[in-house]
Amino acid sequence: MTEHDRSDRRPATAPACAPAASPPPDARQPYPSGPPPAWWAMSPQPPRASETPADRSGAGERPVVREEQRGSSPDGLVDRPSADRSPPQRIWYESHHLLQALSVWTERVPGRGEDAEPFVAHHSPSGQGLLSVFDGSGGAGAAPVWQAADGTSRTSAWVGARVARLATDIWFREVSGGETATPETLHEYLKYFLASAPQRRSKISGTMRRQLPTTLAAVHYRVLDAQGGLELQPLWAGDSRAYVLREDAGLQVLTRDHTRESDALELLRTDPPMTNLVCADREFTIDSQRLRYRMPCVLVVATDGFFGYVHTPPDFECMLLRTLQQAHTEGEWADQIRREVQSYTADDASLAVLALGYPTFQELRDRFAPRYQELADRYVRSRPRGLDRTPAASEAVAKPAPEDPAGLPARVRLWQDTTWQAYRAGYEIHLPPAPEERA
What we know:
With 439 residues, this protein is α+β, with helices and mostly antiparallel strands. The protein has a single domain, classed as PPM-type phosphatase domain (Phosphatase 2c, domain 1, 4-Layer Sandwich). Helix content is 28%, strand content 21%. The protein has 10 helices and 16 strands. It has helices at 3-8, 156-176, 183-196, 264-269, 304-307, 314-326, 330-344, 361-380, 408-427, 435-438, and strands at 39-42, 65-70, 88-96, 99-106, 119-123, 128-133, 144-147, 153-155, 216-223, 229-237, 241-246, 250-253, 287-288, 291-294, 297-302, 349-356. The strands form 3 sheets. Strands 1, 5, 6, 9, 10, 13 and 14 form a 7-stranded antiparallel beta sheet that branches. α2 crosses α3 (183-196), α6 (314-326) crosses α7 (330-344) and α6 (314-326) crosses α8.
């Protein structure tokens, strides 16, 4: 599509209508049990002035800062940020008949997190929904571009991620009303909103610098029939990822990072620059593919703060399923994931999860128990001693004889190569082809 054609198809919703991005009034009320309402979304709500921090710490654990909400309900629990509590963290969760959703958001530096809050929404009449994450690219967008009323300065990456979230929110509302869900229409909304956002031209220029740069990873899904048929459409730009998780097949990636290296293990060992990401000053691509799938399954989207700081690709799935087995509700699962990621990541981290086709959380947990045991037996128990992660009690094994610390790097590399070779085929079954393979 040419730039002229795009201007003729300008999104109907202008930035002046930004408040419409909040959920409709009905969607902001507590939901009864049973089938979902016509429209619901999990979105952050500002804390009320009367609320005070609640101490959720355990024995010997520092109090955490998080905002905890029951979906979009204004009656959810909210813990307000405090200067002496670090780092801030928030979780959201919601459940309805055959739909269970949660999201987790953390920032490494208090008040400076460049990931936007995850977006999760479902439209019942059309049987479709969307979950997405946005990671502002701090390296390419480190320059300040906006200042809040309280004097807080925000970087180009911080603004870019949140504007992209708003554009995606508005786009999905139009899609749920009948507009076609395509990467081209999402691209139009992103370009339109980014062009209207605050920008500041820097005197410092370079090939890596961008205006309002952010990654985007989303999954748009549509229920096709009463037998549980699904159409999945992952949409992405940058190195955030989308996955589908099944109890019989494990975690399967649906996106290919926009980097010159695409091997998941090598990406853990190196940090290549992105070749494509959403931004306001250069052209970008929203990549996509369409898949037919069946319920039940679990959809996952995450920024690299979750999967980029593990030792081997199976570790991310192990973390998701271990925390699932430790939880009894969606809220507990979100909280366990929040605690776990904060124990290993060195970056902002955001994630959204949507389970489709499981009547109860208990059934979801029970059906993934065998898969978790398989992962623990194949990839966790073989872990070289001396790695920084301590196995959970359920994964503990008898201590072997002490090993030479000098040989740890070689043992770790061998273990990484071996586990990745065994895990890779199933993980990459839906990996999109490389650009050169599409020609």
